[in-house]
Each structure stands twice: as structure tokens, then as C-alpha cells.
Amino acid sequence: MRSRKKAGSDPRIPVLAGMIILLVLAAGTAGILIHRSNERRAEETAAEAEKETEPEEEPEQEAGAETKTEERQAKIVADTLPNETKAPAEVPESTVGTVPEEESTLAEESTAAEQTVVASELIPFTEELRFAEYSKIHTDPAVLYRVSGPGARGLTVCVNAGHGTRGGASVKTQCHPDGTPKVTGGSTAAGALTATAVSGGMTFRDGTPEPVVTLQEALILRDILIGRGYNVLMIRETDDVQLDNIARTVLANSYADCHIALHWDSSESDKGAFFMSVPDNGGYKNMDPVKDTWEISELLGESLIEGLRNRGVKIWSDGSLDMDLTQTSYSSVASVDIELGDRVSPHTPEQLGLLAEGLADGVDLFFSRAGNRQETGQ
Ligand SMILES: [Zn+2]
After folding, report:
1. In this structure, what CATH number is given to the domain that contains residue 339?
2. Is the pLDDT of residue 85 over 80?
3. 138/127 Cα distance (integer angstroms)
4. How far is ligand 1, taken at its centre, from the CA of residue 237, in Å?
5. What is the 4 CA–ligand 1 centroid distance (Å)?
6. Distant-in-sequence, close-in-space partners of 247: CB < 8 Å, separation ≥ 6
7. Distance from Cα 347 to the centre of ligand 1, integer Å
8. How far apart are CA 201 and CA 161, in angstroms?
9. Of 151, 200, 236, 334, whose CB count within 10 A is highest?
């Protein structure tokens, strides 16, 4: 059964598919950036099943896998296109990837100083990063999108599309950096010293693999967050990235202010969204680096759930489940695994857009609350 919770007057997903990012700047200057990137690596992924959410390929992109890395590295500064005032949702889908001609006349009205620019760069995993020695799979880079200009917030969100590491299920990594055993059961039993480096994920009852949906969600969330002025560290933008859960966490620790891993649960009751909270276990909460991050991670998880709930997303129980995860155990920044539904939950483009808006709202809440905590010394 696919019980849809549909908001009465569903807001249109404000960010259209793909690498086009429209940033509505302050009224008056009303600058808008359209970021078009040719760094797309994911077109061969199963995201094609949901064309509306799939970032489209830049028309002028050159073929040739062997040149991709150089192109991506050279493509530091993204194309920027000038002001417009139309809401993104009003741009016809057929114009995705192009600038509607009637709007391009605004080009000359903006100056470079008013424009918000999105640049991207590859972020390799390197051995000197903290906890790097515990990772077993780390040959691929992540991608960091940096927003600069008037819309920039100077904060970086790591968006981690859960699963999607070929071969990761047959590799084991240490559960905790200090070698202590896992304190809760889950996909790995309590007491275990090692866990699967990256599991394959579940399969939705309609046959869709979880990693396909987490990637679709991640790409939508990426664009919304960039549209709100956040830098985004993307762990995965294709169906396979050779980064295990520890490597993903190491990169988030080093390059982001918070880390959000996107998942769907393996239950079959459409029970709603929840996040994996830090187990209420004294030893675990005193373990390095959890002792320094568990409170801020809880704040992140609670903020994400609140953002989702405010958008009308179904929430399971109180919105959290205690779980000792590898991700949490190695995180030195606020870090959450969030389960956005389960095997029978809808994963239509509309639902994924709604979830992404809720998550982005949660990110806004999190940073405002985290900032308040710092100011008040809490
Ligand atoms: Zn998962």
C-alpha cells in the first residue's frame, strides 16, 4: 500500500531537476544565478527511472570518461547566468539546461559583484585525515560545491547518499576507533568489533534498490541546499563511489559542518521517517570522538525531523531510534543517519522533493539553533 500524505496545496518543488540552481537573492537586487555544471557523472545510474529528478547533462558536455576528472578539476568556476526574477518552478521543464530567451534580457542589469557563484572541486580522500587509517575503501573523491557571493552562508553540509559502493558489502571495518565493541544491535550485532564497510542497502517492494533512491534524494537536496546558500559536500553522485562509511565520515569531518546520510529503512509498514540517535550508553557517549559530537548530532537529527514534520512528512514514533553506527562512531562534526521511510513508502519525484524541502528546512533550523547554543555558551 502506498498511502500518500499529500499536502493540500503542494508547493511546487522550487528547484528543478539537475544542475541548474536558481538563487533568488534579496528583493531589489533580485539576482539569480543559474549554475550549469558539466560535472555530471551519474547519467548512467538508475536515476533515469525518474527523469524528473535526474540532473540533466550539460548539452555541450564532451564525451569521454577518461577526461572527466580533468574536466571536473578544471571546471572550478561554474557557469553563471545573470539575474532573473521568475520563480524556478515557472520555468518550463523543456527549458531545463537553457536560459529562457525572454528572461535572458535581464543579463545586462546585474553586475558580477551581485552574483552568487557556485564552484565545484573534487575532494580526494587522503591518508593524513583523522581516522583515515580505519577506512578500507577510499579511492574515489567526493565533490564539494562552494557558494560564494551575496547568497553564501559559509556553511557546508555533507550530503551522503546511503550505500552505492560496489564491493563494499564484502569488506569489514572496525566499528569503533578505539576498538571497543558495538553497543547496540542492528545490521551488525551488539558486541561485534567489525561491521560491513558499506552494505548494499535494501530493495523497495516495487523492486527499486535503495541506493538508487538515496542518490535521487541526494541530488535534489544538493540543489536545494545550494539554492539556500550552503556549500555542499556530495559523497556520491553516481551509482558507485568507492568510499566506505568510514571514508565518507572522514571526508565529512574534514570538509563539512554537518553530515547527513540518507537512507530508507527495511521495514514494510510505511512507518515514517526517523533518525538514528546516539545510544544512551555511558561508555559510548564518552568515547572519542562521540563525546564531543553526540549532543550536536542529536540536535541535527531532531532539527531534520522537525523540518520534515512541518512539511507534512509522516514521522515514526518520536522520530528517533538509538543505534550505534560506524558513521556516528567516527564523526567529529554533527552527524546523522536519517531513514526517510521504508520499503513500501512512496518515492515518487513529488515525495522526494517534499522530503528534500523538509530536510533543508531542518538544516536551516539546525544551524540557527547550533549558532544560538554557541552564543549562549551551552
Ligand atoms: Zn540504508
Report:
1. 3.40.630.40
2. no
3. 10
4. 16
5. 21
6. 125, 132, 135, 137, 138
7. 14
8. 11
9. 236
Give the three cell numbers for residue 129.
585525515
C-alpha 321 – ligand 1 centre gap (Å): 14
Q: Is residue 84 in some structural domain?
A: no
372 C-alpha to ligand 1 centroid (Å): 32
- Cα(47) to ligand 1 centroid in Å equals 17
Computed over every residue of the chain, the mean pLDDT equals 79
Task: Give the distance (Å) from ligand 1 centre to CA of residue 27.
Answer: 40
Distance from the CA of 31 to the center of ligand 1, in angstroms?
38
**Residue 339 in contact with residue 206, Cβ under 8 Å?**
no
Ligand 1 center from residue 202 Cα (angstroms) = 7
Range of the domain at 124: 117-375
pLDDT of 115 higher than 60: yes
Listing DSSP states for 76-115 in one string gives -BPEEE----S-GGGS-GGGTTS--GGGGGGGGGS-GGG-
Residue 230 lies in a domain: yes
For cell 560506524, the residue is 326
Residue 264 CA, ligand 1 centroid: distance in Å: 5
Q: Has residue 191 been placed in a domain?
A: yes
Give the number of other Cβ atoms within 10 Å of residue 171's Cβ.
Answer: 15
Position of cell 550552503?
Answer: 230
Q: C-alpha cell of 330?
A: 567516527
pLDDT band at 92 (very low <50, low <70, confident <90, very high): very low
Rounded to the nearest angstrom, the distance between the alpha carbon of 121 and the centre of ligand 1 is 27
Q: How confident is the model at residue 90 (pLDDT cuts 50, 70, 90)?
A: very low
Q: Which of 162, 177, 159, 152 is nearest to 123 (CA)?
A: 159
Domains identified in the chain, total number = 1
